[in-house]
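Section 3.1: Structural characterization of target chains.
Under the original work plan, the team committed to producing a structural model for every single-chain target entering the pipeline before any wet-lab resources were allocated. The record below documents one such target. The sequence was received from the expression subgroup and is listed exactly as submitted; it comprises 255 residues.
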Amino acid sequence: MIHKKIIAIGFLALGAIALIVWLFYSYSADTKQPNTITYTQEVSANDPVDIVLDFYNPWLEAVKSTSTDPYTAGLATAKILSEELRTRIVSSQGQGDTEIDPVLCQTTTPARVTGRIVSEQEGEVRVLVMAKEKELTAQSVFTLKRLNDGWFIGDILCSSGEFDIPREFSFEKEGYLLKNIQPPYNSEYWHLIFEEAGELGHVVPLLFSSESSCIAVDSSTAICAPDQFVEAKKVHVYGQMTESGALVTRLQFIE
């Protein structure tokens, strides 16, 4: 009889331990659940120009306002922006009145602006926004990315107006220069290593002509001299895609 009681108590103890372990892991999973929440990208099915101006114009009005600013108004974290772009714009807060606005791309606030599409390719549209005042030559170039049935603003490029806005480029990527590369790629040519659709390691040969211009970090421009390039330099390439590679129109070095 005593043995039976001991066995029964043992089973009860084991059951209690099992219950405690189950409750512990259940609680741990619940408390860790918020860390598994991922960023959700908002998209719009509107016309790309309308999407851009629906973001740009409120930003412009907030800049003009005497009672608020774009950051206080929450525009810097608008969900129509990509996560990377939101982070970049937020980090620009407090740069001062003399700095170029990261959205308007101006040091002087424009009164009125106009927008239009300057390039289209599968899954990507570029929209140019410029001031109607002729003396304000700087421009904002918005890159919209396709996601499911809508568009989101993936990037904003500021152009000083000194160079043609890329309207005709069939290839435009940011990545790293590499020449010392394994077959099947030809190490006689420079290549661009870039990311696409979240996947690293995409490679394209770069082809240069006498009209290929290179822009240094200090914004000085010259005809490209590939023999002076350095491995692993970060660049932004604009050009035309051919069967042999990307024919470079413009290559901009990034610090």
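Confidence is low (pLDDT under 50) at residues 2-37, 162-168.
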